[in-house]
Design goal:
There is one protein chain. The chain has 100 residues and is an all-alpha fold. 96% of the residues lie in helices and 0% in strands. It contains one helix and no strands. The chain is rod-shaped. This is Colicin import membrane protein.
């Protein structure tokens, strides 16, 4: 009877140790999954920040291009205005030079 009690105690302690190891393994997998998810979240955050920075840079470039195009168009308009004024002055001078 004493042997069967000892055997039963040994078996139950082995079962308890086995269960504890299994629970520890489950906890380890859970912790690893949580760490992996946190790493993914961090990667997503960094990627989003980089995308925002790139969008800001692109917007600045686009604004600079718009400003440059505006200035070029204004300069062309001013040149066209001066050309028209010069043509008008030349036409007036031609009219004045004609014999009357």
């Amino acid at each position: 009877m004493k042997k069967s009690i000892l055997t039963l105690l040994a078996a139950s302690s082995l079962f308890a140790v086995s269960c504890n190891k299994e629970k520890a393994a489950i906890d380890d997998r859970k912790d690893a999954a949580k760490e992996s998810i946190e790493a993914q979240k961090d990667a997503v955050e960094k990627a989003a920040e980089a995308a925002k920075d790139q969008a800001d840079a692109n917007a600045k470039i686009e604004k600079a291009n718009i400003e440059a195009n505006k200035e070029a168009a204004q300069a062309q308009a001013e040149a066209d205005k001066k050309k028209a004024e010069a043509a008008a002055e030349a036409e007036k001078a031609r009219v004045d030079a004609q014999p009357k």
